[in-house]
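Subject: design request, 309 residues
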């Protein structure tokens, strides 16, 4: 008899009570903290949409100076899956604001946001400028309609037939993924796709993401947010830098050398919309996932920035 081994993705906090978690806004986020609660608070915001904080755990090294919170966003990573009646960025910002209040306990927050997390961090600064003292914005892809169009045009150049055909082995495995919450099979595809980046357009030539880069992708969130923009970037109508002038804290815009949305892209489309004293630093010899692939180099820049008065 033909026997196929069942594939699995990790369970969420809804099914695994042993996972570290925080309940906010009636939702059980997969989350954990590192460091002394008396130290200055810091929150790490992962990319995606639909990624998880697993790939950013190198930033836990900051726990020698800060009380660091990592969390998987709603519908992402090992946080529960649900029906997304409101998948807008505003829903993510409401969650972030609640986590800032809970984790900060009235103290000003330090934020580190990567990619999609950088978009959330930027939008949060514009909406809650008095709650944050320092923000590291690592290579956000889209902050306003102009950059949305520019990013999609660049990305489409790489979505060739041969890159699409590489998805076939993943799709063939799809029917054999064990399902418990009804999202596992599509999450399996999202997990494999998000962890398969090698070389351009995101990384340098020969640069590859480590095995297990994404613990569990959230396909439904991707489908509700970013995937429609690939077909029609005009759907992106908001400017998340609007109101950023009200933020009087410090900002470090962190970019890579090789990513198609790296230093040159950020200089052209995003840096002009940030406050004048924003620091923009490029990490040489790496791509979009610099915080994962070059943690030592990244922290060498981030640490002194976070210490600034």
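Subject: RE: design request

Done. Sequence follows.
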């Amino acid at each position: 008899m033909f026997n196929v081994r069942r594939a699995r993705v990790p369970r969420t906090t809804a099914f695994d009570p042993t996972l570290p978690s925080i309940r906010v806004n009636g939702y059980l986020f997969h989350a954990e903290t590192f460091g002394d609660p008396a130290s200055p608070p810091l929150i790490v915001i992962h990319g995606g949409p639909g990624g998880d904080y697993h790939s950013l755990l190198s930033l836990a090294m900051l726990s020698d100076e800060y009380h660091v919170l990592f969390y998987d966003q709603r519908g992402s990573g090992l946080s529960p899956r649900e029906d997304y009646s409101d998948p807008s960025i505003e829903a993510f910002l409401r969650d972030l604001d609640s986590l800032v209040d809970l984790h900060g306990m009235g103290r000003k927050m330090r934020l580190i946001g990567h990619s999609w997390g950088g978009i959330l961090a930027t939008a949060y600064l514009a909406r809650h400028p008095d709650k944050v003292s320092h923000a590291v914005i690592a290579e956000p892809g889209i902050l306003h309609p102009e950059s949305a169009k520019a990013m999609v045009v660049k990305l489409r150049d790489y979505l060739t037939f041969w890159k699409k055909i590489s998805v076939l082995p993943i799709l063939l495995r799809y029917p054999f993924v064990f399902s418990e919450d009804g999202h596992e099979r599509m999450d399996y595809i999202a997990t494999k796709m998000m962890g398969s980046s090698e070389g351009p357009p995101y990384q340098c030539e020969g640069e590859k993401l480590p095995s297990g880069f994404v613990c569990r992708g959230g396909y439904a969130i991707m489908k509700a947010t970013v995937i429609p923009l690939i077909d029609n970037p005009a759907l992106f109508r908001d400017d998340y830098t609007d109101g950023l002038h009200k933020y009087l804290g410090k900002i470090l815009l962190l970019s890579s050398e090789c990513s198609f949305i790296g230093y040159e892209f950020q200089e052209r489309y995003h840096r002009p919309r940030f406050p004048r004293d924003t620091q923009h630093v490029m990490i040489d010899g790496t791509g979009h996932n610099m915080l994962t692939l070059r943690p030592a180099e990244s922290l060498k820049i981030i640490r002194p920035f976070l210490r600034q008065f």
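The chain is about 30% helix and 15% strand.
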